[in-house]
Please model this.
Amino acid sequence: MSWTPTRRHFMQMTGAASAALAAGALLPGRAHAARDKELNIFCWEGYNSDVVLDPFRKEFGATVKAETQTSDPEAVNRLRAGESKVWDLINLNNPWARKSLWPDGLIKELDRARFEPYFDKMLPAFKPPYRWAMSDDGKHLLGMCQRFGPFSFVVNTDKISREMAEDQGFDLFNDDKHAGKFGILTFDDWNVYHMCIGAGVHPFRPHTEPEFQAYEKVARKWVKNAKFLGGDPVQMNLALINGEIDFYCTGGTYTASPARFDGKTNIRGITPKKGPMDGKGGIVWIEVTSVINNPDGSPLAYDFLEYVQRPDVAKVVAFAEGTYNTVAQMGNPKVLSQFSKEELDAVQWDSLEEEIANSYEYDINPDYPRMIEILNAAKRER
Amino acid sequence: MSALAQRLAGFLHQPGFQAAVPVLILLLIGFFGPLVLVAVFSFMPARSFKLDGGPTLENYRFAFEQSYYLSLLRSFAFAAGTVAVLALVCYPVALGMAKLFGRYAGVLTLVMVLPLFVSENVRLFGWVLFLLKGGGVLAGAAKAVFGIELADMLYSNSATLMGLAYVYLPFMLFPMVLGLSMVSRDVVEAASDLGASRWQIMREIELPLALPGLLIGGLLTFVLSLGSLTESKVLGGSKVIMIAADIESAFTYGQNWPLGSALSVLLLVLAGGLVLVVLSKLNLDAILKRR
Model:
């Protein structure tokens, strides 16, 4: 889910590797080779971490390759462009499996008898049949859930109290008083959603012309008033800690947790108490990991989905690297007990239930292409 | 016509050409191929991911209608600024390395080259830590040692320019050193003996003779900074959007490969055209041969 230059640099290298991988997979001679000892994972960072993969490699004697992706729509498009022949597992935010990958035949369903019992052990919100893991008709299980988190904005509570931030919500960014006191973390798709909320517009429904205008006004104002725009959560947290800014959007436990785990607990993800999405003002993302409809898919994909459900592995996934997140498996006492007090505090376990209650579940913005162009123009003409 | 055909046949039968064929094919596929692909994509309908759409100029129309000219102009301005700053900074250093430092020049070369082994991003984030307000290395030290509060230095256009100059310094410096080392000491001494002032020597002897090096350094840094991205993002806080950032955004978050391709082609044509014009005016070959 992140977009940092350092990570991108790493990806330039893995990009070359994956291109080679893709080329290999497309070669006719290899097309139907048995792949029971190899697994290719396309995921948000974390699942690609060696602390997650190495034990799996050892236990299953498998060659596992993983590439991190940087945006849901981009990953979906890469699968559409033919990479479904390369990858075995895809890890995306919630709407894509149900609304895009399954209808387009890009993923396979999971055996409900084998995988649904895992949902029983998750947090109550994930009780089966869990909406985002199911097909529209409620018959097919499309993926497994693990990491999730509220994602709106982050404040330095020494400067802006949690109560004030929750009450004002995204109006904090609309207030000219705060010009030059906030940053924008350029996860552009999320910026679009949050700017919609700031304009009092539901991001996940088709929009009217007046709504586009309201959105554009907010987009231009935020971009103009921002102290700086940057692509790296670490840079945002550093600016918060050093007093360059008092708050930033787009962010949440996903971006604030590394600073919090480092002892800077005055950095806090905020979920607004109210907003335009059926009264809700925050957004929560939930990752769904699905088995890709690869004509030569690896049987290990299913084993991996079970492997990450193990209590010890679920904990490792939650704290894999770079960012720390809550996982649905924390509903299982065996998982929860593995988190230290500091770790729970880093992922804001204390307010999680309340924040989720105030959050709307991430969805697809039908007007995204036009809205992203408006945001890009606002940035150019800043 | 037959004479031409004969010449062509003769050329094709040259062992030199035949030996070069494998490399030529590799270059065609690996270097020219992707460029052609980008060019073709720029004529596909917006937001398509395949090359089977009918050719259209829609992406170029969109690029001209929208404010992309701002990014282009700013990129050119920053590139020109970088070249100017680097020319001023590098000339004395290059002169020293070529003429004065003797065996210490090697040490200096090493010092200048070493940063290239570290990723550009890491070095730029180093600058962020250095320039950060409050607890940054510079601001923190100034406060602890001298008790003064430094003003904001990050997230400004000057920070971007500084970053560009820092990152591309070696690309200006080393061609410049080469250029200046082409200036024979005898010529300088002769000019001096004949009564030329130090200023005259620099203007009339050193600069013209070192021109190929200066020119190559200038072109390299210009083209590199024209396509730069990270400096304005990391140090400039995206105060200005460089054209490379627009291209990246079109390919990633925008999911509009044809638009990104059209912008790339525009940049390529403008930069390539400029380079060709400069080179034709200055005729590098003649300058190099003159030596």
In short: The first helix of chain A runs from residue 5 to 26. Chain A has two domains: 5-148+286-347, 149-283+361-380. Confidence is low (pLDDT under 50) at residues 1-31 of chain A.
